[in-house]
Specification:
Blueprint lengths: L1 H17 L3 H4 L9 E5 L19 E5 L18 H16 L6 H4 L7 E2 L5 E5 L4 H6 L6 H12 L8 E4 L23 H18 L3 E5 L1 H7 L6 H4 L4 E2 L12 E5 L2 H6 L4 H15 L7
Parallel strand pairs: 4-5, 4-6, 6-8
Antiparallel strand pairs: 1-2, 3-5, 7-8
Helix pairs in contact: 3-7
């Protein structure tokens, strides 16, 4: 009896297929093949189909692949207004100042959240605070900061018109037992970057500048998914994608040399200026008057 019902099922199934268009069964574009679901009016066990009575119908349903969810297009309507940005950044800065997620939190003098114009089109992101920044709680206030100020001025902007921050929010030191020592700076390691990453991503999403300028290889490779050397990343824009938050609208990022590297290698300044000019051209900036 079971063999008779299976033969009848196969015949009905074949007839059903002949009456269908291929696109009704298998979508033209689908991440997975459609799965067939067979149902009858009787209870079906896992071993054999029961005999079918005369006039009893067989229903075969095909479940088409579920289309991917449409990712909402980011628009300026989703962006915060100035008051909302101010409140969100102040709350985030307080969280950063009280953060102890990695060992840097126990050796810092001051956390350095960042500062600047929260409605800016341009945001600079470095690697981490140094000796002077640790003492003042402000980003880029040492020798490298003075050079960054000149770079910003050459673009026709001022420090007050941009936002400046770092990937790491506390001072990474080669000798944390002696924080009073000069020349005690190092780049943040992978663990420290991972602990701080959500902070810089939240800042970028809140401010939502048109362009982020990554200063140095650590910042560039932390924010640009194409993890190459700085020299390979320079000279072009990338669409910025964040891991922990969604941007309210598209933001582009470009990589250039860290000001501290330019102090050690003045010959790189021309290349850094070429990178900054790409941002200037995109924003229609004429640069500082001679």
């Amino acid at each position: 009896m079971a063999s008779d019902s299976l033969r009848r099922l196969a015949a009905d199934f074949k007839q059903f297929l002949a009456a269908q268009d291929e696109e009704d069964i298998i979508p033209a574009v689908a991440p997975k093949r459609a799965a067939a679901v067979v149902s009858v009016s009787k209870t079906v066990n896992s071993h054999a189909l029961p005999p079918m009575k005369e006039g009893e119908t067989l229903t075969v349903e095909f479940v088409k692949a579920t289309p991917k969810e449409t990712v909402p297009v980011a628009t300026t309507e989703n962006a915060m207004n100035t008051a909302q940005k101010t409140k969100a950044l102040e709350e985030l800065a307080e969280t950063i100042r009280n953060c102890s997620r990695c060992p840097l939190g126990s050796t810092r003098i001051n956390a350095v959240p960042g500062e600047g114009n929260i409605d800016t089109d341009v945001m600079f992101v470095g690697e981490g605070p140094g000796f002077d920044e640790d003492r003042q709680g402000r980003p880029f206030v040492g020798r490298a900061g003075k050079l960054l100020d000149r770079m910003i001025a050459a673009m026709g902007l001022t420090r007050e018109k941009v936002f400046i921050a770092n990937i790491a929010k506390c001072h990474p030191m080669t000798d944390p037992l002696h924080p009073e020592k000069h020349g005690n700076d190092r780049a943040p390691n992978a663990q420290e970057i991972a602990c701080c990453r959500k902070y810089i991503e939240q800042q970028i999403a809140i401010i939502c500048p048109k362009y982020v300028i990554a200063l140095g290889g650590v910042a560039a490779k932390s924010l640009i998914s194409d993890a190459k050397s700085l020299s390979a990343l320079r000279g072009r824009f990338y669409n910025l994608h964040l891991d922990s938050v969604e941007l309210p609208r598209p933001v582009q990022i470009i990589a250039t040399f860290h000001p501290a590297a330019l102090l050690r290698n003045p010959g790189w300044k021309k290349d850094a200026w070429n990178d900054l000019q790409l941002v200037m051209d995109a924003l229609g900036l004429k640069g500082a008057r001679k």
